[in-house]
Design a protein that fits this description.
heterodimer; A: 13 helices; 0% strand; B: 81% helix; extended
């Protein structure tokens, strides 16, 4: 039997979902191993490292994103069930939560609106185009929610997904240092800020700080997803009319 | 693991169905989260199976953002053209969101704690 040349094997494999699914998992495991070796330093964010590895591979092999996503969609799909799964850590903190419902709601509304509107207004002041500004507004909430909101606002869903992930990485990188700077020392408030401003990536970082921080991050992420989905689609058009866009 | 995974998918499905049927602006998975929380309260807590499966799924939550993050390659042109407003807006608004959320919760909780002590 004559074995087919390597290029033919590549041409065949690179067209199957299997290759890109396997490479997504391998890139993440490599990134996570590096993250662990660096003592979970937030600067060595595993999502950032994995994305750099994958984008370099796709560029070097001339693979279009669509073909990559045929394989990676199986991982992407799990964002839905993972969002539902956040109900379990949330249930664990229910007793504590009942006692602090009002502070939580106040922090949610203040933090969520400040993040969304400052993102929109700063980008506008520095000359960004309207679709970019509208894609920036929902960037604090988790990917599937932000994509839906961006579409409703007249932004670009796939750009919003990228901005969401950059926001998550930024928050995970500087969150705990910023809380120290503001003398916010309790785990609950630190976790809440991480989940509110940087969704699942911030929540993953919060679970490294502790169980309480993780649960409050999950709470903030869920609440902010809910609040942003309900508020931005009517608030932003009002703001745009007022600004004359 | 299988019953727990099925449960999560069923709650997501109910969430999607509720969103479509009632025309809600909230995404299906978030409605699913709220419904599962209600179900856990009614049942008095998650089963060991559900606790284990969700723990495993959430332990590597970061992985699930990798495919969408790789989509950055689709937007290299736009990000290159508008890099200054995008970078400044992302950094400043993330710091503002973190600071406001964390500080407001921390301050209000401290105040509530003091009131409870002085009572």
């Amino acid at each position: 039997m004559i074995s087919p040349p390597l290029t033919e094997i590549w041409v065949y494999l690179s067209a199957t979902p299997l290759l890109w699914l396997a490479l997504t998992l391998l890139a993440y495991l490599a990134a996570f191993a590096l993250h662990r070796r660096l003592h979970f330093n937030p600067l060595a964010n595993p999502v950032l490292i994995a994305v750099v590895l994958l984008v370099s591979t796709l560029y070097l092999t001339g693979t279009p994103y669509g073909r990559y996503f045929d394989g990676a969609q199986f991982v992407h799909f799990l964002l839905g069930p993972a969002t539902v799964a956040l109900a379990v850590p949330l249930y664990g903190q229910l007793e504590r939560l009942k006692k602090m419902a009002l502070p939580v709601l106040a922090a949610l509304v203040a933090g969520s609106l400040c993040a969304a509107l400052s993102a929109y207004l700063i980008a506008g002041a520095l000359g960004a185009s309207l679709p970019t500004m509208r894609s920036l507004a929902p960037k604090s909430v988790t990917t599937p929610i932000a994509m839906g909101i961006a579409e409703r606002l007249g932004g670009l869903p796939s750009l919003a997904a990228v901005l969401v992930i950059l926001t998550g990485i930024l928050g995970a990188v500087c969150g705990s240092a910023l809380m120290r700077l503001l003398k916010v020392r309790d785990e609950a408030a630190t976790g809440f800020a991480l989940g509110l401003a940087s969704h699942g990536i911030g929540t993953a970082r919060a679970f490294q700080i502790g169980e309480t921080a993780g649960a409050f991050a999950a709470l903030a992420m869920g609440l902010n997803g809910l609040f942003t989905a309900v508020s931005l689609p009517w608030l932003l058009p009002l703001l745009e009319r007022w600004l004359g866009h | 693991m299988l019953p727990a995974l099925t449960l999560l998918l069923v709650f997501q499905l109910i969430g999607e169905a509720a969103r479509l049927a009632l025309g809600l602006p909230v995404p299906g998975p978030v409605i699913g989260l709220a419904l599962l929380l209600g179900w856990l309260i009614l049942r008095g807590g998650p089963s060991a199976d559900l606790r284990g499966t969700t723990g495993g799924l959430l332990q590597h939550l970061s992985l699930l953002f990798v495919p969408a993050g790789t989509g950055v390659m689709l937007h290299v042109g736009r990000i290159g053209q508008e890099w200054l407003p995008i970078v400044v807006s992302l950094v400043v608004s993330t710091v503002i969101g973190l600071a406001v959320g964390g500080w407001v919760l921390h301050t209000l909780m401290q105040r509530a704690g003091r009131q409870e002590q002085s009572r």
